[in-house]
Amino acid sequence: MVLESPYKGCMAPVFTPFDDKALLNVSVVDDYARSLAQRSVKAVLVNGTVGEGVLMSLCERKKLAEAWVKAAEKYGLHVMVHVGGTNLNGVRELAQHAESLKVSSILCLPDFFFRPTSINELVDYLKVVSKAAPKTPLFYYNYPALNGVKLDMVKFLELGYDSIPTLAGLKYTDVNLEESFRCTQVRNGAFTIFLGCDQLTAPALSMGFDSFITTFLNVGSQLIFKIQDKISSGNNEEARQIQTRITNLCTFINKEMQWINGFKEAITLVTGINLGAPRAPLPPLTDEQKTKLKEYLTKEKFL
Q: 128-140: per-residue pLDDT in tens?
């Protein structure tokens, strides 16, 4: 069976605020949550990839999750917490902690070093995580380009349906729309599939996807919602034009800087909320990169 997710729709993966000494700065979280809520974002993913979760200690990850849950209650946000890591006992501890906070769901990458080499190994791993948080919907984080685990997700969901009591679906961060679409059809649509590729929002919506975890929500949520409106009303050409703006910004950031440090600075420029630089080994932006980013955002009317 499947433990159904309480939330479907668009979710923002939130960035972790650090101060000028690279220390966790949870004082920013309330302003960040309010800003997202004011722009109609209804759900957040905490401690994920762009949240630099794997660069933080268990204590820091717990503290940040607690801050977001507190802010989420204030602003009416659903909270998904990523619990994956390199130590299974630590993963279980984070899952237990997330459940104690009554989060909407948890997300888990596989082990980063001793990676599963088969679907059965992956299922066995997630069964342990599920047991640690038996009342909380569990999502598997499928990100083969990052962690090198490339398994058939349709077969995984079929096996997981009967084997992982809390499995609710996937965060599918890959460009394989064919496989991700087939995942939405498993067991008559029993699972929630969050597509995690900003550049494929419009084509995915046209195929019937209803859930996304997209970085772009942090800087331009109105454009994501406009794409949804245009697709639903059959204005595919207008949706394509909006998607092009989003894709061009993503391409610019990928070309000129790294994804996390680029978007982190873009959020600061667009919202005025200072999230600080990323934590090492991720490099901070140079002054030249900051100038280029601001010029691009101004030129393309994001500012």
A: 999 999 999 999 9
Q: What is the mean pLDDT of residues 52-58?
A: 97
How far apart (Å, rounded) are the C-alpha atoms in residues 179 and 162?
Answer: 20
Are the C-beta atoms of 196 and 171 separated by less than 8 Å? Answer: yes
Looking at residue 165, the DSSP 8-state letter turns out to be: T
Is residue 104 scored above 80 in pLDDT? yes
Q: Amino acid identity of 45? A: L
Query: For residue 48, what are the contacts with CB-CB under 8 A and spacing of at least 6?
Result: 13, 14, 82, 107, 141, 213
Q: Respond yes or no on whether the N-terminal peptide bond of residue 13 is cis (omega within 30° of 0).
A: no
CB of 14 closer than 8 Å to CB of 216 = no
Phi-psi region of 24 (alpha: psi -120 to 50; beta: other; left: phi over 0): beta
Q: From CA 161, how far away is CA 121, in angstroms rounded?
A: 15
The rounded mean pLDDT for the chain is 96
Tokens describing residue 236: 């595919």
Find the helix or strand (DSSP H, E) in which 160 lies. helix 153-163
172 bridge partner residues:
142, 195
DSSP 8-state assignment for residue 17: P
Distance between CA 60 and CA 79 in Å, rounded?
17
pTM for the model stands at 0.97
Comparing C-alpha atoms, which of 211, 106, 119, 107 is closest to residue 158? 119
Q: Determine contact, residues 66/101, Cβ cutoff 8 Å.
A: yes
